[in-house]
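Recap from last week: sequence in, structure out.
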Amino acid sequence: MKTKPVWVNETFTSIQGESTWAGLSCFFVRLSGCNLRCSYCDTTHAYPRGRKTSIRSLARRFFDSSAAIAEITGGEPLSQSGFRELAIRMRDGGGGRPVLVETNGSRNISLIPDGVIAIMDVKCPGSGEAAAMDLENLKRLRPQDEVKFVVADRKDFEWACRVVRKYKVVAQCHAVLFSPVEGRLTPAALAKWVLDSGLPVRVQLQLHKVIHVK
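Predicted structure tokens:
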């Protein structure tokens, strides 16, 4: 059966900058389009439709690369009907290399196939999109998945801590990541709040914005 193409903003190989997989070489597939408009978005260039591209050719680019891992990102990849097949093809043909999916948390993560790792955002109030979250996703997390809170200020931090505690997020997944919004919150301030909170979460910085390799 002929597969549907997906809409792609770009593909590239770089150093993974976020999650516990940071520092590894990574083949990125950035799918086009996003249903959210976060106040701090740094990938607005992915909003337009992009290029129609076959799933087979995208998977082949990963197979032919020397990258240690792959990531399907966006935009919001779960919004595209071809996403699941793309993830499966990359998982099955990548020689056992891990495949990550970065998702904004507003779509049902049950779409992510077994053996593919979710890196799921939970949008805090400072994003302007907290109401769009599907918080049932916190109950759908698997042991290999990771959750990311991007924190703009003290209000965001306290909100994120309440969510982590209420949904027992630390016990649901591999890692819980707190990141500061660049230009709005210093890493040092976030680190101090995390220390004071006693929560076993990780402070995460965006490594790719330090090394600027693409």
